[in-house]
Write a structure and sequence with these properties.
By secondary structure, the chain is of the alpha+beta class. The chain contains 9 helices and 15 strands.
């Protein structure tokens, strides 16, 4: 596979997420990130998801997925191509961890039940406040500043952090597999993000509390669960209706038997939670 193939087939968002880099603000097409090569208080890196490119307004440099990996990993083009090959879903057959994670220094200062009014309000807005026992309130310090957010633990004891203003992972990025001892039918329900998992628990669409749950926490993590899914007799999919979600869905439907796509329920919405928020009047 040549450089142009990689640039066309590997999504820039997935690559950035593999380094625990998430947008500070975004709309449907453009997102703004902090610069890749320096500290800053105002995000200057504009990422165009349609063109699959990025532009740094601070330096005037343009990036594609290859040059992004080169900057972050400080590596050659050939090494960057090797790193990016894992994100071509036709080649994802490795259980190797996504490597060289760039993580800002942080310290978790407090883990408590959800109490902060801002987080309570955010969960109420997302219509999943009643599922607060499945998550925690996380207070942490990063770059000498104090922050707090909703925390959801993954299999490597990393914490997916969400709030109105933040989306990041503290620690190692990983999936979250929740096993159910009552899973006699050997079924698993797969979600892309934990808010969709919380939403499912809120409405219990399939009315089945005996299945295992798998939350990817990012489509970039799919390579870690390919062998896991082979062990199940039935797979239910609640993936996002964007390009990444559709790509993962197609791969699962091609590779595994007895797969049920549940996205038709929210076909006019980005994901299950958005559908629930806009249609649940409670």
């Amino acid at each position: 596979m040549n450089c142009q193939d990689i640039k066309n087939r590997v999504g820039i968002r997935v690559v950035l997420e593999s380094f625990n880099i998430f947008p500070v603000k975004e709309n449907q097409r453009i997102a703004f990130y902090f610069a890749l090569d320096r500290k800053e208080s105002v995000p200057s890196l504009a990422v165009d998801f349609m063109k699959n490119t990025a532009f740094d307004f601070g330096t005037g440099k343009s990036y594609d997925v290859i040059s992004i990996v080169q900057v972050i990993n400080r590596c050659s083009v050939s090494e960057a191509l090797k790193y990016l090959a894992r994100f071509d879903f036709s080649l994802l057959n490795s259980e190797e961890k996504i490597g060289s994670v760039v993580q800002k220094h942080y310290e978790i200062t407090k883990v408590i039940d959800i109490k902060h009014p801002a987080l309570v309000q955010y969960l109420q807005f997302r219509k999943v406040y009643e599922q607060k026992d499945l998550i925690s309130e996380i207070h942490y310090r990063m770059n000498n500043k104090k922050y707090f957010g909703i925390g959801f633990k993954n299999n490597s004891n990393g914490l997916e952090i969400r709030s109105t203003y933040s989306k990041l992972c503290l620690g190692i990025k990983d999936v979250t597999l929740i096993k159910n001892d009552l899973n006699s039918d050997n079924e698993i329900i797969l979600f892309e993000g934990f808010f969709d998992y919380l939403t499912y628990r809120a409405i219990n669409i399939i009315n089945d509390e005996t299945a295992d749950y798998l939350i990817l926490n990012s489509t970039a993590m799919f390579f870690k669960v390919e062998n896991v899914l082979m062990g199940y007799d039935k797979i239910f999919l609640f993936l996002d209706n964007d390009d990444n979600g559709k790509t993962v869905k197609q791969m699962i439907q091609t590779k595994y038997r007895n797969v049920e796509d549940c996205s038709s329920l929210y076909s006019d919405y980005k994901d299950l939670n958005e559908w629930f928020v806009k249609n649940n009047k409670i």
